[in-house]
Amino acid sequence: MKKLLFLSICFSVVIFCLGTAVAEEKGASAAIKPSDGWTLHIDAKRHMPKMPDMVVHHYCKPVSGGLIECQLYDSDKPDARLIGVEMVVDAATYNKFTKKEKALWHHHKTEIPKVDATLPDLSAEEAAKTLKGMEETYGKVYILWNPAKNESPVGKPAVSVLH
Fold first, then answer.
1. What is the DSSP letter of 107?
2. How far apart are CA 114 and CA 44, in angstroms?
3. H or E segment at 86?
4. Alpha carbon distance 142, 56 (integer Å)
5. CA-wise closest residue to 151 among 78, 81, 92, 46
6. How far apart are CA 86 and CA 143, in angstroms?
7. Which of the four, 7, 40, 81, 104, has the lowest number of CB atoms within 10 Å?
8. Dihedrals φ, ψ of 59, to 5°?
9. Are strands 82-90 and 137-143 parallel, antiparallel or unpaired?
10. Got the DSSP string for 15-83?
């Protein structure tokens, strides 16, 4: 009888704790929006066709499925224009792609030095550590429009291959 009472109390405590955790998680997720968390700022060149010296400002965050997504802007000013998106995957995900798909991606280990990547919001030590951690990832850049061609967002979106 004592054993049954003890198990009932333990079960009740577990259920209470789980309910509290689920309620806290729901409350926390309700306050967080998909637009939150774009906090990693990376500046890089060579992303825009015919504009190799244009600095493209990446604002990145990890999302579900092990992906990292970056919004690409033409400046870091409050009225900057969204000009592209970069998807970032790890090596295991990249290795599952077909040969044709792999051709659309770039390896960050070789790309980062070519684009003069900087992380202006981090200390030099933090930036070096972050860039080192990105070396074994792969990126695919979707250019939505090219401000070098037109001040308005016209034209066909394209994948910019940075090999």
1. E
2. 9
3. strand 82-90
4. 13
5. 81
6. 9
7. 7
8. -120, 115
9. antiparallel
10. HHHHHHHHHHHHHHHHH--TTS---EEEEESS-BTTBTTPPEEEEEEE-GGG-EEEEEES-SSTTPPEE
Which residue type occupies 50? K
Tokens representing 53 are 């010296």
Over the chain (163 residues), what is each successive 10-residue block's mean pLDDT? Answer: 35 35 50 88 86 90 94 93 96 97 96 92 95 95 87 89 72
Element holding 108 (H helix, E strand): helix 108-114
Identify which of 156, 158, 154, 125 has the alpha carbon closest to the alpha carbon of residue 140: 158
How many whole angstroms separate alpha carbon 19 and alpha carbon 31?
19
Are 152 and 83 in contact by the 8 Å Cβ rule? The answer is no
Tokens of 110: 């070789």
CA distance linking residue 86 with residue 46, whole number of Å? 13
